């Protein structure tokens, strides 16, 4: 099993543990803010399960029905994450509204706050692992989970501080205000995840820094060709697709043109992980900048 898949499975277990701790903290205190924190952890469990499924599907090899593979499955997982985050925010807003109409007291017990703090520490450590692995493996599913978990850590820390202040000040509606702020934070997180996921589904190009590395490698390895032009890139999960036109002298043997293409492909595979290169070879009459062997 790949490292990313193992991490996704561990993520499910950790999410369940954190959910149990946060719900226990809510039961001990009756705080709406801590309830909203626990509700966000339910979303974490759902998104962790979605990430496991997406990673398994995306790892399937290409076949006749999907010749470019299943890598985009991770973007669908990230979209599900975004939608669930938004639903959680709406649910919290509902609890805040009902609580404002019918205020009720809560007990800021040290045990409840300590349990919630322990859950927050666990989330803080684990979100760093998810973000690091998501970037390393270029996994939208793990990266989305990590970013959402980071938002959860920040909001949990704020909730803990606020609940303690509400208990000390005696202003119990501060608990509801904090829950509303948590919901706004969750809503922003959901929008960010959805925006990035839709970009992936729309065949978004690679980042500018990666594109520049690709251009340099092509220019360095295109010796013997006249020009490379019309470079296009797109990302699909961990996969990067690169295609461009390579102009060669009209009298160059096919074997020599093929050797140049092989050299460029090998160089790009060494430069960028999980890249699939498609090169269209053209005669010199197709050159756009005669005599310039660069992009």
UniProtKB/TrEMBL annotation:
UniProt keyword Endoplasmic reticulum present: no
Gene Ontology terms: cellular component: plasma membrane
InterPro entries xrefs: Cation_efflux, Cation_efflux_CTD, Cation_efflux_CTD_sf, Cation_efflux_TM, Cation_efflux_TMD_sf, CDF_Transporter
Localization of this protein: Cell membrane
Molecular-function annotations in GO: cadmium ion transmembrane transporter activity; ferrous iron transmembrane transporter activity; zinc efflux antiporter activity
Chief place of localization: membrane
Record key words, sorted: Cell membrane, Membrane, Transmembrane, Transmembrane helix, Transport
Residue span, Cation efflux protein cytoplasmic domain: 207-284
Chain ranges of the Cation efflux protein transmembrane domain: 10-202
Organism superkingdom: Bacteria
Membrane-related topology note: Multi-pass membrane protein
PANTHER family: MITOCHONDRIAL METAL TRANSPORTER 1-RELATED
NCBIfam families hit by this protein: CDF
Family note: Belongs to the cation diffusion facilitator (CDF) transporter (TC 2.A.4) family.
Protein name as it appears in the record: Protein p34
Organism: Ancylobacter rudongensis
